[in-house]
Here is the input.
Amino acid sequence: MSKYFGTDGFRGEANKVLTVEHAFKIGRFIGYFYGKERKAKIVIGKDTRISSYMFENALSAGITSSGADAYLLHVTTTPSVSYVTRTEGFDCGIMISASHNAYHDNGIKLMNAAGEKMEECVIDEIEKFLDGEYGEIPYATGEDIGVVVDHSAGRNRYIGYLITLARHSYKGLRIGLDCSNGSTWMIAKSVFDALGANTYVINNTPNGTNINRGCGSTHMEQLQQFVIDNKLDAGFAFDGDADRCLAVDENGKIINGDLIMYIYASYMKERDKLGDTKVVTTVMSNFGLYKAFDELGIGYEKTAVGDKYVYENMRANGHLIGGEQSGHIIFSKYANTGDGMLTAIKLMQAMLDKKLPLSKLAEPVTIYPQVLKNVKVTDKDETMNDADVMAAVDEVTNRLGSNGRILLRKSGTEPVLRVMVEAPTQEECESNVDYVIEAMDKKGLLVCIK
Here is the structure.
């Protein structure tokens, strides 16, 4: 585990955990690292939170002081930075965003020249530089100092790319969009308007502090009611940097990432577009999704939690679709990262080709009740290897049989184990989770239930 960078960049409260000095140093290193043999080109995007402008300036100063050029996309989405990086010959892409977090947090996401998450070996070198363990990096002087370039044209090309991916006109359709007061506050409406939809937009007035506040893909209630009140055909909610999308059907019901993957994978299967590839999920996808895939003969693989791991599996094995319940959906033919706008367009494609509303497309999936409890234990590894605890897990597995599952996994950042059960009823979930926790308690391994 890296000291500063997690699976989705360097993230934390602005100027407390992630400081302007960190941003300057990251810019310094990136400009130097990619500019050893020629002048490097680094592209930067940001979301709407108040600190994003500060970090943009700090990164730009660091990059140019090391002799590289910084190209600014301004307020844009994470997937647009990935797209521009890989299609326009940039050495590196940077997105300034803390995704779905509140405004006081921010983050720096780094991408390689292919628009993928930065390699760990480069992250390790950056962290050494942040800690003063790398050595001095020379400052550029004279005509070697880099420049800052307005590159809003790159964002516009990304918008054009999205529009070309839609196979149908949306004329006559009433579509709701929740922009989370974030990166899609202008982009989403422009795309859906260009495709002919009657577009109804909420949470598209960012002020620097209202990003993700009670809105977007982590707070779906507002969009659900908005769809019902305005009799819309569908609604789409994005998170702060728009690498996630969740949908709402015409009845106001949430279509989460599992249902999105089912809808599009089954659509591809019907059209012989899936081939021998599998759908890549994380271990947290619902048991009901796998049951529905089994019925259609659609294969699947499970990874650790995190879209990083989903993408790594997809890239290694040539899979075409994967994602998480949270709405990080990756369509590898079109993008190297989760893309909320692309996800919305692909759902619209399935709706229009099949001439069915989202409610009907998701109907074959029965989402199983789920109970997840976090328990603080004396030692995670000791508990996971305890014979009596494992016997309790095996007992639950046998009880559930083919009608449910249990998952016991470690938190990566806390002395916590997560006990999750999915079963046909809420009561079965509760009783089986508690059965395993009681086994921990009897052995003196349990500190508390968080």
Observations:
- DSSP finds 15 helices and 20 strands in the chain.
